Structure formats: C-alpha cells, structure tokens
C-alpha cells in the first residue's frame, strides 16, 4: 500500500473521515498527497514489468493493488495521427483513444481506484449522480466488486449508450424529479447518512486513477513528455488528474518538461474558458449550459478552480469551440483516422485545429489530444450528422452508379 493523506487542496488540513468530501475547515476541495518514496526507489523502465494500464503505476495509487477491482482499464492506444496532423498543420499530433477502455471512456481509470477504495472501506453500496459515463463506469465496477450501485438520474437529455450500460450492469437507476443539482443533493444526503459511498466527480480517489492517462502518454512516447496535452473540460477532474501526474513525475525528477495543459470547453458551457480569457483564478458559473457534447455540458464545474491552476501553472491555455466545430472535428477523426469518438472527445481535436489557426499552437509542437470517450456512446448524434443509407436496386450497375458518386 502506498502511504497517502487526504488533504484540503487549499489549506492543507488533513481529512480522515472517508465520507467527508469537502474540507470541514475551509470548504475547499480535497486532494490526495501520495508518498512517492516507493516509486523513488525505481527507474521508469522498472514500471514496464507490468502491462500498460492503470496498475502499471500502482506506486502512484492510494489503494492496495492486492485487492484491486479491475476490468483491465487503461492501456489504450496512442495513435500518431499523421493524416489528421496534416489536415490541421501540426505534423506531430497524437490521439490517446480513451474510448477503448472497458466501458468506453476514461472514467474507468478513476473507477478502478475509487471502487477499490470503497471495497477497502467495506462499503456495500456505491452511488453517483450522473447522466453519463460516470454512471456507466461505476455500474460496471460495482458489478465486478459485488456491490450495489445507485445512479441518481436527473430528468432531461441522456445519451442512450450510457444509460443502456448503467441499466445493463444492474445499477438501480433512479429517475429523480429535478435537475442535476437536485439529483446530486439527494445522492449526497445518502452519503452523509453513510448509506452509500459517493463516487461523484468530487471524490478525490478518482483523479488518482485518472493520472494514469498522463503516465501512459509519457511511457508510450518513450518516457518523453509531449509539448502540449489537449483535453475537454467538464467538471475538470481530468485536467487536474493530468496535472497531478506531471507534478509527481517532476517531484521524482523523472521529467524536466511539463506539457502545456490545454483545456477545451464547449462555447455554451465555458465557465473555465471565460475565466481564463480574463486572467481570473475564480470562475463564474454558467446558468443553463448547452452543447451537443453532453459529457461537458457543465455550468458549475466541481473542480473548476483546480483546472485554472493546472492551466496557469503549466503555461497552458483554455479555449472554447462551437458545436459545429465539435461535429466537424468528430467527422475529421472518423474520415482521416478511423477513430470514432463522442462529441465531448472531439472537442480536444477541434481545439487543436482552432488554436493552431490562432497561432497559439506552433507547427513544430508535439501535441497529444485526449479523446475521452467512444462514439458509440451517443449514436443519435452521429446519425443526425451523417447521410442516410442509399436506396439501391439489386443490380451491379446500380451499385456502380452509386459508387461513382462522391
Ligand atoms: C467525464 C467526461 C469528460 C469531462 O471530464 P471532466 O473530468 O469532467 O472534466 C469529457 N469527455 C468524456 C467522454 C467524459 O466522459
Ligand atoms: Zn481547507
């Protein structure tokens, strides 16, 4: 077991009650301080005795690997996307395709650690408020762990693939009267009464698992860091996780260069990007967030302040992209690279294109775009943006006529 402390990210106060999610002293978010002395006895190459995946980096994880709850998460491909790179004028562009995780998104990286921790605590029930990938991932890991899972679902739009997964894995999917905040408030009440262990975005164990996406990119590039990492920002736990991974590698002296962390938000849900545009360290929540990219349709991001720190500290950037730019980038990935991602994931590639056009990204940068989730999660959005199947007679001539068209 790696020694670690749960502390307030603002005042450093240590929090020992595992059911507490905010600092009792100042209300700040929690984070985990990992004792890196075990890792410091090793070389990066030593990590490679284990297969690529979250648990290759067990020395950075705050749970005991011996009783991990795992479905072989992580170990996703890092593609050198040459055709995409040529199209956006960034020859050294890479795509880390997180859609190939067990439930189809990077959330699995966080849940293997979060649910392993729940198991250590002896929790019998886990829960989250979510319309999306968090509930899909939690449901799967709860099944694997033999725990009950409650998903608090606000009324409103949900992507069919994600809801189908939560139901399929046997979670109790509770359709709560009200919006997301109401659903989350109810889940929290249950957690406060110790009736379930809450694995929402605020849980500090999840980013620990999510650090592994950055460890893997560095590992897959031959223990080199890219110049820049671009990722979509919703509740902002993931950009914080990526930042934390960089800081831990730096603390070990395993890297000198920290990539410029570049967060992309949808124009209709951009509190972090708005704050960045003004050079602010606090953000103002956005009233009714709207975007086709449902996974980042967040107006009041839980870890928004952490995201701003990650971006400023690494001399990164934060920008918005429109829904049209997101859909165009989603298609570009499909048509140039054979990669099918959900709209939120395409935001990173839309951001790459836009920031190159703006001259923020230099042509010679090595850039890794994290494509967070699988396109099959949200088939409705794909079908709304592609042509219909083509009526065809039962004849070779008719097939030839159709293939001759553009
Ligand atoms: C959760 C999620 C995001 C946003 O991640 P945050 O940690 O909330 O910023 C982006 N894309 C996909 C596919 C997701 O599931
Ligand atoms: Zn505090």
DSSP summary: helix tally: 15
Q: Can you list the strand order of the major beta sheet?
A: 3-4-12-9-10-11
Order of secondary-structure elements: EEHEHEHEHEHEHEHHEHEHHEHHEHH
**Overall morphology:** globular
Number of strands: 12
What would you say the CATH architecture of the domain at 78-104 and 206-384 is?
3-Layer(aba) Sandwich
- Biggest sheet details: 6 strands, mixed
CATH fold annotation of the domain at 78-104 and 206-384 = Rossmann fold
Structural class given helices, strands, pairing? alpha/beta
> What oligomeric state do these chains adopt?
single chain
* Residue share in β-strands: 5-15%
CATH class of the domain at 78-104 and 206-384: Alpha Beta
Distance between the termini: 59 Å
Low-confidence region ranges = none
Average pLDDT level: 96
Descriptive account of the structure:
The protein has 406 residues and is an alpha/beta fold. The chain has helices at residues 37-40, 82-88, 107-121, 133-145, 160-168, 180-192, 205-210, 212-220, 237-251, 271-277, 304-313, 323-337, 343-357, 379-384, 396-403, and strands spanning 4-8, 30-34, 78-80, 93-97, 125-129, 148-154, 172-176, 197-198, 228-232, 260-266, 317-321, 367-371. The longest helix is centred in the N-terminal third of the chain and has 15 residues, at 107-121. The chain is globular, with a radius of gyration of 21 Å. It starts with a strand and ends with a helix. Residues 8, 10-11, 13, 23, 25-26, 28 line the site of zinc ion (ZN).
């Amino acid at each position: 077991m790696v020694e670690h402390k749960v502390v307030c990210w603002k005042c450093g106060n240590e929090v020992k009650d595992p059911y507490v999610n905010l600092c009792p002293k100042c209300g700040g978010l929690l984070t985990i301080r990992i004792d890196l002395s075990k890792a410091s006895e090793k070389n990066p190459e030593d990590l490679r005795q284990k297969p690529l995946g979250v648990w290759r980096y067990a020395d950075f994880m705050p749970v005991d690997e011996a009783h991990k709850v795992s479905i072989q998460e992580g170990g996703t491909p890092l593609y050198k996307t040459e055709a995409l790179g040529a199209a956006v004028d960034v020859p050294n562009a890479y795509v880390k395709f997180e859609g190939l995780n067990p439930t189809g998104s990077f959330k699995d990286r966080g849940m293997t650690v979060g649910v392993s921790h729940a198991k250590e605590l002896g929790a019998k029930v886990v829960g989250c408020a979510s319309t999306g990938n968090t509930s899909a991932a939690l449901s799967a890991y709860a099944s694997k762990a033999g725990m009950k899972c409650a998903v608090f679902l606000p009324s409103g739009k949900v992507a069919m693939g994600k809801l189908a997964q939560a139901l399929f894995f046997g979670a109790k999917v509770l359709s709560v009267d009200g919006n997301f905040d109401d659903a989350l408030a109810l889940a929290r009440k249950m957690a406060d009464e110790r009736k379930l262990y809450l694995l929402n975005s605020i849980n500090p164990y999840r980013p620990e698992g999510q650090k592994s996406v950055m460890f893997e990119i560095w590992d897959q590039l031959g223990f080199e860091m890219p110049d820049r990492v671009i990722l979509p920002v919703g509740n902002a736990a993931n950009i914080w996780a990526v930042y934390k991974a960089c800081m831990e590698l730096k603390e070990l002296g395993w890297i000198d260069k920290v990539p410029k962390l570049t967060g992309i938000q949808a124009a209709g849900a951009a509190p972090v990007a708005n704050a960045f545009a003004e050079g602010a360290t606090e953000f103002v929540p956005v009233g009714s967030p709207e975007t086709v990219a449902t996974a980042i349709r967040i107006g009041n991001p839980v870890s928004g302040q952490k995201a701003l720190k990650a971006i400023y500290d690494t001399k990164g950037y934060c920008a918005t992209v429109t829904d049209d730019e997101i859909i165009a980038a989603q298609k570009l990935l499909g048509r140039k690279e054979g990669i099918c991602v959900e709209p939120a994931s395409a935001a990173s590639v839309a951001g790459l294109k836009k920031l190159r056009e703006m001259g923020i990204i230099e042509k010679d940068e090595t850039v890794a775009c994290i494509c967070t989730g699988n396109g099959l999660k949200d088939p409705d959005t794909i079908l709304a943006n592609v042509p219909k199947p083509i009526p065809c007679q039962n004849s070779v001539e008719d097939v030839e006529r159709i293939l001759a068209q553009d």
